[in-house]
Amino acid sequence: MKRIYLILIVLIALGCAHAPRHQDTVFQNAPINALLAGCYSGTMTVGELGKHGDFGIGTLDALDGEMVALDNVFYQIQADGKALRLKNSSLSPFATVTFFNVGPEVSLPRAMGYEMFQAFLDSKLPSENLIYAIRVEGKFSSLKVRSAARQQKPYPVLTEAIKDQKVFELKDQEGTLVGFWFPAYVSGINVPGYHFHFLSKDKTLGGHVQDLEVESAHLQVDTSHGFKMHLPGNDEFLKFHSAADTKTAIQEVEK
Predict the structure, then answer these.
(1) I want to staple 117 with a disulfide (CB 3.0 to 4.6 A). Which of 32, 72, 112, 238 is the partner?
(2) Does pTM top 0.85 for this prediction?
(3) 248: pLDDT confidence band, cut at 50, 70 and 90?
(4) Would you call 189 helix, strand, or coil by DSSP?
């Protein structure tokens, strides 16, 4: 009898070890409204974020560039557009991550500009009321990307901080778009619609995508039915005030 119990315990342990790690949930550190208001002090380490996802986007302490998480590796896209692998101790004030659930691949039928590309993605999303993690691997004839510049305290609001951003035109690149689609009702929590960061195939270049021309690509969409957000406890977050017109502010920083 003891042997049977021992076997059952081992089987249960093995089952737990292979259970999905919240793959149906998107995790976020802080609402986008806090970032808009200038809450740039890091409140969660990359190591902590990695416990909640292996795929995602965000920014770094003091708004020091863009963050990309791909295949469980976190990268910083510096103000000059160059990518560096981050240490687990690196801090982030805002990030959105998930454990990407690999699914069927869909190939683009033709070359597309950004507007047509987003319309094509729209046709692949089953509902406008869920959250989607989107991975696109392909060849891009051109990309317009930007990366935020490190800020100094007292931090300006994001619409002022992005005036220092560096915009780059990348030509003939292979790489990956890492991003999400959020429903309209999350305004103030995250960015409604599509939000992509790019990382080149050789992991040396990237940035926040503003425009693109994709030559060929295949994509995967991971649907999420759950959302979890961490609310920081530092004074910066506890005392910030949301922008009166969040929609306009988001449109200004995303364009």
Answers:
(1) 112
(2) yes
(3) confident
(4) coil
